[in-house]
């Protein structure tokens, strides 16, 4: 059955035809994935793509890494979810996370990143007895209500006026303040006005949900200082940065240690694992009596198959030159793309970190979300749509980042750079003809 027929069947029984909001990509409504391996996936009609979208970030080792797959299969032969007690692998994984991530003294496993950020905010409120949460423009922390302000919400649109979804109580959104990223002054001012009521500050240390904004040290230091002074809980949401940028996350790179850390994505190379870790006195609130004072639960938490995937992923990240490889290819891509766009005379800012790259079509630099408003969305999306014709998949949605994995090769990078020149050249020549309707929404993020 070809993919047009299959995707029509999907739309009849799955709302929007896909199982997550931003898999619904304009122009790709008929895409049916048939096979994935290493740096590539193939669609149902037999077209193969070199995959830089990487499922929004998990497969740092590449799709279906054989060592990870073998560990999952072995877990399936020996143990199963029993819903009581703990397995040896769960203990080993928790010990590994406490060793690797500076802030993590104790850790709990979830199935997703959203659950981890949800529980981080819950325990921060439980610990402080306070109401407010501070988040930053451009950061995404999952689908739950407290953080469901549109990633582009401006500070003056706080208070439920700009939610990512219908169906959220305005009073929940009222308890979330949105500040501009990289503004130490805005942080100081928010603490001066509301400090005694701020339970938590949650931040993506690198807001990759709008591509890549690199954090200024002074900004991160100010978060740490103000939270410490006011007795608020600082949460680094390292769902993307954790393991991908460093085994200890951005906190190991920056030397700034939060109170709580949320993890996910690259931790298990694509298997559903999230984690919430941090200061033992905070984490202990989940255990000081059965079910409380902070409640934490989940039928699938610590499932043996996904824990085995996480252990196998971490083992490989520690024993093979994964970071060296993906950082080198990432740098080749950033440098190469900047040269390609400059030789075509198109304004571009090619940025990223390590294995992550993003090509904005604008003059640099970009410090805050507002700077990204200069990006030419139609060039960004049109360029990426044209890359598809060359067998390259970067998600054709505005401001999305791209990722390199351990399975990508120098030949893949050569291919990308050749295709980039052709795709950007063609888009510059005929860009206005593309229908970009719906493809430049920046409301959601993954
Ligand atoms: N935090 C960040 C920084 C994320 O990027 C995401 C998902 N992209 C989440 C939290 C939510 O994770 P999940 O989709 O696994 O619930």
TrEMBL record:
Question: Record's family?
Answer: Belongs to the class-III pyridoxal-phosphate-dependent aminotransferase family. HemL subfamily.
Keyword Isomerase listed? The answer is: yes
Record the organism: Nonomuraea endophytica
Q: Which UniProt keywords apply?
A: Isomerase, Porphyrin biosynthesis, Pyridoxal phosphate
Question: What pathway does this protein act in?
Answer: Porphyrin-containing compound metabolism; protoporphyrin-IX biosynthesis; 5-aminolevulinate from L-glutamyl-tRNA(Glu): step 2/2
Any one biological process term the GO annotation gives? porphyrin-containing compound biosynthetic process
Q: What is this protein called?
A: glutamate-1-semialdehyde 2,1-aminomutase
Q: Which Gene3D superfamilies match?
A: Aspartate Aminotransferase, domain 1, Type I PLP-dependent aspartate aminotransferase-like (Major domain)
* Matching SUPFAM superfamilies: PLP-dependent transferases
Q: What is its EC number?
A: 5.4.3.8
User: Which reaction is this enzyme known to catalyze?
Assistant: (S)-4-amino-5-oxopentanoate = 5-aminolevulinate
InterPro entries assigned: Aminotrans_3 (IPR005814), Aminotrans_3_PPA_site (IPR049704), PyrdxlP-dep_Trfase (IPR015424), PyrdxlP-dep_Trfase_major (IPR015421), PyrdxlP-dep_Trfase_small (IPR015422)
Cofactor list? pyridoxal 5'-phosphate
Can you provide one Gene Ontology molecular function annotated for this UniProt record? pyridoxal phosphate binding
What superkingdom does the record give? Bacteria
PROSITE patterns cross-referenced by the UniProt entry: AA_TRANSFER_CLASS_3 (PS00600)
């Amino acid at each position: 059955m070809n993919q047009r027929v299959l995707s029509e069947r999907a739309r009849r029984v799955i709302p929007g035809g896909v199982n997550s909001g931003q898999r619904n990509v304009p122009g790709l409504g008929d895409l049916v994935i048939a096979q994935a391996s290493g740096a590539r996936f193939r669609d149902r009609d037999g077209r193969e793509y070199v995959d830089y979208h990487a499922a929004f970030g998990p497969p740092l080792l590449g799709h279906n890494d054989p060592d990870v797959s073998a560990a999952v299969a072995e877990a399936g032969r020996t143990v199963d979810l029993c819903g009581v007690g703990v397995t040896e692998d769960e203990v080993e994984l928790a010990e590994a996370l406490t060793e690797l991530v500076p802030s993590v003294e104790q850790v709990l496993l979830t199935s997703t990143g959203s659950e981890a950020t949800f529980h981080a905010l819950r325990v921060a409120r439980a610990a402080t007895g306070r109401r407010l949460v501070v988040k930053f423009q451009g950061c995404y922390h999952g689908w739950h209500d407290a953080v469901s302000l549109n990633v582009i919400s401006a500070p003056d649109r706080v208070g439920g006026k700009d939610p990512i979804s219908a169906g959220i109580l305005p009073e929940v959104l009222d308890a979330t303040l949105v500040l501009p990223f990289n503004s130490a002054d805005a942080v100081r001012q928010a603490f001066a006005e509301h400090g005694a009521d701020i339970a938590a500050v949650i931040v993506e240390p690198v807001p990759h949900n709008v591509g890549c904004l690199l954090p200024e040290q002074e900004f991160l230091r100010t978060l740490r200082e103000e939270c410490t002074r006011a007795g608020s809980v600082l949460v680094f949401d390292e769902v993307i940065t954790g393991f991908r940028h460093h085994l200890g996350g951005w906190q190991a790179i920056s030397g700034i240690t939060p109170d709580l850390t949320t993890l996910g994505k690259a931790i298990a190379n694509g298997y559903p694992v999230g984690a919430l870790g941090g200061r033992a006195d905070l984490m202990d609130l989940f255990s000081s009596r059965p079910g409380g004072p902070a409640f934490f639960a989940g039928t699938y938490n610590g499932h043996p198959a996904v824990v085995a995937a996480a252990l196998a992923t971490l083992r490989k990240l520690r024993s093979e030159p994964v970071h060296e490889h993906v950082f080198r290819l990432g740098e080749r891509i950033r440098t190469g793309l900047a040269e390609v766009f400059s030789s075509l005379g198109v304004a571009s800012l090619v940025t990223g970190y390590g294995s992550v790259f993003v090509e904005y079509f604008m003059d640099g630099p970009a410090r805050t979300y507002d700077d990204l408003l200069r990006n030419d969305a139609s060039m960004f999306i049109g360029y990426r749509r044209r890359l598809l014709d060359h067998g390259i998949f970067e998600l054709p949605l505005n401001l999305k980042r791209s990722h390199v994995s351990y399975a990508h090769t120098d030949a893949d990078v050569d291919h990308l750079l050749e295709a980039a020149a052709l795709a950007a050249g063609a888009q510059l020549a005929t860009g206005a003809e593309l229908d970009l309707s719906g493809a430049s929404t920046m409301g959601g993020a993954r």
